[in-house]
């Protein structure tokens, strides 16, 4: 599970080539912490007792790491991505839902 979490976090951050060495280490730590927290919550939901102080420490560690990495997806350059070229998502594509609006030309 930690390997899958690491891969997903890395992808959200734009891929391994976009990460500095320290970010790669933070991704590994975030992945491990997320798995430990998820495991504890799974046990709790199943009725097992869990050590709340330790869970709190791990959850806080995960949140701090996630905050350092940034809790948002980073845009990825897809200009050369052949898979995206065929569906209009390559160079020059503009999503009609993301159009520019000139606020100065709007009337009240």
Tell me what you see in this structure.
The structure is a single chain. With 108 residues, the protein is mainly alpha-helical. It has one domain. 54% of the residues lie in helices and 0% in strands. It is built from 4 helices and no strands. The radius of gyration is 20 Å and the shape is elongated. The N and C termini lie far apart (53 Å). About 7% of the residues have low confidence.
Question: What secondary-structure arrangement, pairings included, does this model have?
Answer:
Blueprint: H1 2-12, H2 21-45, H3 52-69, H4 82-85
Helix pairs in contact: 1-2, 2-3
Instruction: Let me know the largest β-sheet.
Output: none
N-to-C CA distance:
53 Å
Low-confidence stretches: 95-102
Taken as a percent bin, the fraction of beta residues is: under 5%
Task: List the helices and strands in order.
Answer: HHHH
Q: How many beta-strand runs?
A: 0
Tell me the overall shape.
elongated
Radius of gyration: 20 Å
| Mean of pLDDT | 79
In terms of structural class, how would the helical and strand content be classed?
A: mainly alpha
Q: State the share of residues found in helices, binned by percent.
A: 40-55%
Please state the oligomeric state of the protein chains shown: single chain
Q: How many structurally independent domains?
A: 1
Q: Give the helix tally.
A: 4
């Amino acid at each position: 599970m930690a390997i899958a979490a690491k891969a997903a976090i890395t992808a959200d951050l734009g891929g391994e080539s976009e990460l500095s060495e320290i970010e790669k280490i933070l991704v590994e730590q975030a992945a491990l912490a997320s798995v430990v927290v998820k495991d504890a919550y799974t046990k709790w939901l199943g009725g097992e007792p869990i050590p709340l102080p330790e869970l709190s420490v791990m959850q806080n560690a995960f949140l701090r790491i996630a905050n350092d990495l940034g809790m948002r997806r980073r845009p990825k350059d897809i200009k050369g991505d052949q898979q995206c070229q065929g569906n209009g998502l390559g160079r020059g594509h503009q999503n009609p839902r993301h159009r520019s609006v000139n606020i100065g030309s709007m009337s009240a």
